[in-house]
Amino acid sequence: MVRTVTPRPPRPADLADVVRQPGAVLVVEGAAGIGKSRLVREVLRHLGPDVLTGRCLPTRASFPYGPVVDVLRGLRVDGSALSPVAGVLAELVPELAGSLPPFPAGGSSAHKVARAVREVLAGRGVLVVEDLQWADEATTDLLRYLVDEPPPGWWLLVTSRRPVTWLRTPPGRPRALVRLRPLDRDGLRVLAGDVLGSNDIPAEFLDELHRRTGGVPVVAKHVLRASADPGVVPLSLRDAVVEQLADLGADVTAVVRAAAVIDEPATEADLAAVSALAPRRAAKAITTAVAEQLLTEVRNGQYLVWVPLVRQAVYASTPGPQRRVIHERAARTARNPRRRAAHHRRAGEHDAWVRWTQAALAEADSETAIRLLDDALADPLLPRTARNAFAVRLSRAALTGIAHQDTVGRLRAAVADGSLGRSARGEVRLNLGRLLINQAGQLAAGQAQVELALTELRDRPALLARGMAALALPSFGSTPVHVQLDWLRAAEEAATAIADPEVLTAVLANRMSALMATGDTRVWAEVAALPRPAGSVKVRRQLARAYLNLADSATWIGHYDTARDYLEQGRLLAGDGSFLPVLGDGTALRLGVAVGEWATLEPDGERLIDQAGEMTFLAADAWLALGWLALWRGDRAAALARFDGAIAAAHDNVPVLISARTGRAAAFLAAGDFAAAGAAADRAAAQVRRKGNWVWAAELVPVATRALLRGDRLDDARTLVTEYAAGITARDAPLAVAALDDGLGALAQAEGGHRAALDHFTRAAHRYAALPHPRWSAQAAESAAQSAAAVGAVDVAATHWITAADTYATLGATRDATRCRAAARPHTESRRGRRGYGTTLSPREREVAALAVTGLTNREIADRLVLSQRTVEQHVAGAMRKLGVHSRTALSEG
Description:
The chain is mainly α. The protein is built from 44 helices and 11 strands. The strands form 3 sheets. A 6-stranded parallel sheet has the order 1-6-2-5-4-3, sandwiched between helices. Helix 7 (185-196) packs across helix 8 (203-213) and helix 34 (674-691) crosses helix 35 (700-710). The chain is elongated, with a radius of gyration of 41 Å. The chain starts with a strand and ends in an 11-residue tail after the last helix.
């Protein structure tokens, strides 16, 4: 029978069962180092009898019967048991001459040799022939004969790197074929455990090992035995690759080296040109390299050295002068400017490298441009004139793409090494400063760089205006807002002397951001006058930044619907490939947590944190939103960790820091640690006072007031609320206005003025609901219920508690909803059941009816009052029944 096993190796014991049958043949195929010999050894352990092993060698001269001679010369032979034909082996194996019958008359022939070998091998057990791909013609004929006419009591095991199509067994003869493939991740884990003597293999190491070795066992063993980083070529692997190439000859070595230098899928023509071989010789060498699995045909007619570490080993083992020449040839075959520039660079052709890098930059997106320029500037051999130009281009590209710390370091080095001219240095310094502010979160350092740049850009008014505008963003740094607004006025004055639409739009964008961030009512007329998107990519980018900054500022002050509109416009204008959409995503998370859109907020936030990577400043909003979400879901420990993450990421982004410290205060307050809550609130309040922009304290004031009051600091609470009220006067900041009522209610409640507190909390609840900010609306309603209960307004208290419970339940805050329903129960039930209003409308029914007659739908009423749609339907039906009317419009008549 014939058993074919592919692609995963079977158990050695199962293969041994096949081989034990008379005349059986086992063929193990696979690339060099794939584990053929190891599998054969495992099989032999199960077989037990003597093993005869021979190996075919990749010699240029032919040695007939080479592996068989190796086997025979080590045998002990009893000539008395052999026929005269065995004597022909005396000529082939002189070591056996004294034990063989006399040399037969008529001389030797291939047939006589085959018969003689069959006799000698009878009963010998297992014959193993390794590396059959290098077998000479005489050996292949001999093995065919032995398979057709097997000696009694023997089995054949062979290994080969190439398919053994010529070794066929007669019908019915047992034969097992195993084609080995590279190990998968699990197989590699087992191998690593065997070599290292431990199964505690880090997942990251295993992933990198699999990627770099391609799962080829022998390559993985070289790495593991050398205790090397999977990205580093062990010396033993390099030596093994050199030896293998030497065995395969000069032509194969040439095409494999060419493929390693090209380092991407290459056509047969490319490999011929880069290896400098005639097409026919190159084709033959490629065929051999593929058969040896050094090259793989990854696409139709395109070849690659498929194992990354082997590719590195081939490259490293190629002598430097040869590598340079191969790169020269590869440059001529490269099909895109980036690859051509890389080959010219490695060939030492610096002018061509610069020229083709410039061509690659012309068609590169921001991220690709950053990588190209970063890489070029890291090379000390880059010509000085190109270094100046590339540093400026890198500073520009970094502003639009997502830069990395290496890029920041590269730009710092460029302005410090003295090689740049004053104007170029000023531009690089300006862009470095903006990068530090916008992406790295190093606000103080960034502003310092910008201020230095202004002294170097006196003769470049457009960049001067950009620099001044960069210092005018209120959110950033410890500089008071009024000083930053002075910078804004200076930037606007400088912009009057220029006509560059991009710079003018950039200055205008910063003005819009500053006005919105401070609740300045002038912003609405000026936003309406923003230019329409133009064909210029640069102007569109500045408009995108304007709308995204407006969305950010509008979210802080409570213009949530407006923020959503600006966010959508900004995202459409920004497109992909820059850091702007990442900032927009952060704003969307803060907006979502405020308006109660929590369903996907957690995975979206985690995804943004991962996307920001080492530029953690871009993830500050995500950390912040996740902190508030965790707090409102009742997980105080997670909330504190998230708020700490926001503080670490935000650096000098003041509204984020104020909000995160407010969140910490709220978490401590909920845990009953009033001293810690007061301390966190004090830190946040100090930042507000330092900046002088009180609209950013809308989250802080309700929390801080309660924390200070619970800590017996009534005077401090009263001072804070008084400062806050003065600070938001004449400001268009609806969240701040709602928060003022919330803070005043807490003060009145603490001083025993429950009727005043009820009024303040009720207004706060309605104002929060109108934004909408359902979580704080529910909290204010709950506080209103407590004050109503304190003055004996039982029905009002019940209504507020039920409203708060419904809102909490809608948000999924079940613990808060349960608490409010429990508080409402004594005020809504008697011993005989729930108290009713008879034919009189309840307060909530009157509220719903008043909205229904205006034409609002049940859904719209539910959104307005932060109720479920089902609750609104019940209130409408109840009001119509009590008033005896049959239409919504008739409710007004009742």
